[in-house]
Specification:
single chain, about 180 residues, mainly alpha, disordered N terminus
Amino acid sequence: MVARSRRAARTRRRGAVAQPDRRAAGAGTDFSRRTELWREIFDFVAFRSLHGWGWFGEWVPYQFPFSTINWRLGEDHTSALNAYVDVLLQLGAVGLVAFLALGGIAVIRSWLVASARRSIIYAWTPLILVALAVESMLESFTIVGAGWFLLVLCALRAGQSSSWRENIDAVHTGTMPTIPPRE
């Protein structure tokens, strides 16, 4: 304690801001738990990297490989704390590519619709999809319950707004419904 207070006093005299002790603040704990969990998950992904261990959504604590991951860590996790890592574990590389394609195509289509129609109503879909993509880096919310519902709903809405049926109608009428006619 005396050494810490002397170090803080020297730092203050030099005009620099004292760096907080990360262990005392508990700042490193969350990230270190995540990295330990992901390290264990990647050990299991290596065994079934292409097709994964099967879709569960939220982890079932007594099912393999989730029970083994929790046992090896000595903790009770109900997700991988990252939707992308969770999809990789459960569905493998094929499932991760499909999940990224679903989200990516939905974002692109909804963004194009929102930029063409220029209404605040159409801006909500790409904003929700971007929020889900960012949230997926921190939690597995997107692949269970309301998160999955929002992802599928936004993907369907994006597909509905820029449907191939509108292009067929445009051929018969001579105008595109999403693009205003030239004057």
